[in-house]
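Quick one, probably user error.
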């Protein structure tokens, strides 16, 4: 069955926390398979992440994962945080290296696979990990990236969520290379709605994500026709998730940025494409 999942970040102010709670309840309408909350690398706002994860799972009933990074934290801090999660009924972790600014602390684990194994030893968490269809900017090669992903799977990760990408063909190529490297866990495409095109271009540059020419053209043409940025982003999103559905992908992970409108567009377009597909199968 097709489904979506959503990513949020913890609200800092009371107003932002209320808005997050409201967004989570509105998007719960799409019956996400899970939702996740980011975690400040180096342990910044650890309590904020914890509170958001627990409150979102309680209020929406949607299984909620806590992201957890190890750079900048000690083994004891990680153990304590994961115990707290488990005791609060949080059974899923998105396990990450993290890359905080100005961190000189020694890493508590030699690599992310060792971190995944340690979390699994702590409690039987369901562990998701990150992967990079257009290669992690610090990885030396695709082979290195794939070897790390395979090691994360072997250490107990049960799904991988991708860095955001716009060029589906690079994602399809990555998945087939991952499969050829013995990676069998589901690889969930990470979808970033564009609320602010110039900011997204900056982010994409720092993450090594390609912004294809047709996206620049869509914004240039949209400006001429008087379309709003939201309208342009909606059309791009619909087309991206429609293509993923027709390519056989049953899940997408939407980086909501704690906002409803484009997460709604992506969810509806993706689930509707799957409905069309199952209708076509019934008719055939
Ligand atoms: P790994 O699995 O350890 O590495 C991935 C690849 O990058 C490997 O090829 C590895 O060799 C290479 N690599 C990574 N770091 C280095 C390095 N320092 N030197 C050399 N090679 C390196 N960050 C947060 O702080 N909080 C979050 O909540 C968060 N959530 C994320 C969710 C998703 C779905 C994704 C895709 C990323 C998220 N990040 C988050 C960012 C993530 O922490 C960084 O991308 C980090 O650099 C790599 O983490 P990883 O666990 O994928 O690394």
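Nope, works fine. Designed sequence:
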């Amino acid at each position: 069955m097709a489904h979506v999942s959503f990513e949020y970040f913890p609200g800092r102010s009371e107003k932002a926390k209320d808005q997050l709670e409201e967004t989570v309840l509105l998007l719960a309408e799409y019956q996400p398979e899970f939702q996740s909350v980011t975690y400040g690398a180096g342990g910044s706002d650890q309590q904020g992440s914890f509170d958001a994860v627990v409150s979102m799972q309680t209020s929406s009933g949607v299984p909620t994962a806590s992201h957890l990074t190890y750079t900048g934290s000690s083994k004891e801090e990680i153990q304590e945080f994961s115990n707290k999660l488990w005791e609060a009924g949080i059974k899923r972790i998105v396990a990450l290296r993290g890359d905080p600014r100005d961190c000189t602390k020694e890493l508590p684990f030699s690599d992310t696979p060792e971190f995944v194994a340690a979390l699994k030893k702590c409690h039987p968490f369901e562990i998701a990990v990150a992967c990079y269809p257009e290669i992690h900017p610090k990885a030396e090669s695709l082979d290195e990236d794939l070897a790390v992903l395979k090691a994360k799977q072997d250490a107990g990760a049960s799904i991988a969520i991708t860095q955001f990408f716009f060029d589906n063909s690079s994602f399809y190529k990555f998945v087939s290379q991952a499969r050829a490297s013995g990676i069998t866990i589901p690889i969930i495409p990470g979808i970033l709605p564009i609320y602010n095109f110039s900011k997204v271009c900056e982010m994409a540059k720092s993450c090594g994500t390609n912004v294809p020419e047709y996206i620049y053209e869509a914004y240039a043409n949209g400006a001429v026709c008087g379309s709003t940025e939201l309208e342009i982003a909606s059309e791009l999103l619909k087309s991206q998730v429609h293509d993923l559905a027709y390519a056989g992908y049953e899940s997408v992970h939407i980086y909501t940025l704690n906002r409803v409108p484009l997460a709604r567009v992506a969810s509806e377009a993706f689930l509707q494409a799957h409905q069309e597909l199952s209708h076509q199968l019934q008719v055939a």
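The two ends are 19 Å apart (CA to CA).
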